[in-house]
Amino acid sequence: MTTEVENFPVFPEGILGPELMDNMRKQAERFGAEFKNGWVERVDLSKRPFKVTITGMGEVETEAIIIATGASAKLLGIPGEKENMGRGVGTCATCDGFFYRGKKVIVVGGGDSAMEEANFLTKFATEVRIVHRRNELRASKIMQDRAKANEKITWSLNKTPVEVISDGNKVTGLKVRDNETGQEEVLEADGIFVAIGHRPNTEFLNGQVETDEMGYIVVKPGTTETNIPGVFACGDVQDHKYRQAITAAGTGCMAVLDCERFLEGSATHDWSKSL
């Protein structure tokens, strides 16, 4: 989850991501929205009413669905990573950063998220090392400038992570390979945060909704309609380009309006035409 949201309207000083979410939830509840927590096990979109099986609730039938499952952090897929998840390897500096007060940490990645994670971690860690497999960073100039100006941040560029090193109980370092020389070395660290991008959370759909080559849901341009009438998608689950809080919120509003019109059977919209 993003540490601090600085580009959302109405908050000139920025706002913490969890606080923004809580405010949105309270506002929705004020207008009658109901929230129920559960894990979606499977969906059947073959015909209406659609069937959604939810842990603890059983099967629920619905005439329309809005998919807003977002995207999750990608992992490196190297030895020692999964084994040490939660024991020195993480993907959320906001959640776990305070565990590393007075310690050394590594952030893997070269985009905005990696720069933000690194800057946040300097509030606690004595040293934050950014490891990126290329010489060039993908992060925006302002995010790069912030990271480069931070005296606690050091750099290991053009190096590929090879293995997470641990003593059996906790992480002790990250083995990396220099992409030019092929030489390997172990960078000492008490914690490793992976910030290399995201993957859309669409696995539970089992291919029933059209997705692109990266797994993001395909929507009809200018709408939130999927290839299945009555199924809509909004937010990062259908957006790999902008990935901003405000654009996600905007498409959320679009999805609700599209869904409402669908349920009302709007005569001015031909819902039978899919992508």
Oligomer: single chain
User: What number is the mean pLDDT?
Assistant: 92
- Indicate how many domains the architecture comprises: 2
Write the CATH architecture name of the largest domain: 3-Layer(bba) Sandwich
Provide the CATH topology of the largest domain. FAD/NAD(P)-binding domain
Please, what is the CATH homologous superfamily of the largest domain? Answer: FAD/NAD(P)-binding domain
Keywords: Disulfide bond, FAD, Flavoprotein, Oxidoreductase, Redox-active center
GO molecular function, one term: thioredoxin-disulfide reductase (NADPH) activity
Domain FAD/NAD(P)-binding: 40-252
Subunit structure: Homodimer.
Structure description:
It comes from Parageobacillus toebii. Keywords: Disulfide bond, FAD, Flavoprotein, Oxidoreductase, Redox-active center. The chain has 275 residues and is an alpha/beta fold. It has two domains: 36-72 and 199-264, FAD/NAD(P)-binding domain (3-Layer(bba) Sandwich), CATH 3.50.50.60; 75-196, FAD/NAD(P)-binding domain (3-Layer(bba) Sandwich), CATH 3.50.50. The chain contains five helices and 17 strands. It has helices at residues 17-30, 93-96, 112-121, 141-149, 245-264; strands at residues 4-5, 15-16, 40-44, 50-54, 58-62, 65-67, 71-73, 89-90, 104-108, 127-132, 153-157, 159-166, 171-178, 184-188, 191-194, 198-200, 231-233. The chain has a five-stranded parallel β-sheet, with helices on one face. Helix 3 (112-121) packs parallel to helix 4. The two termini are 32 Å apart. The mean pLDDT is 92.
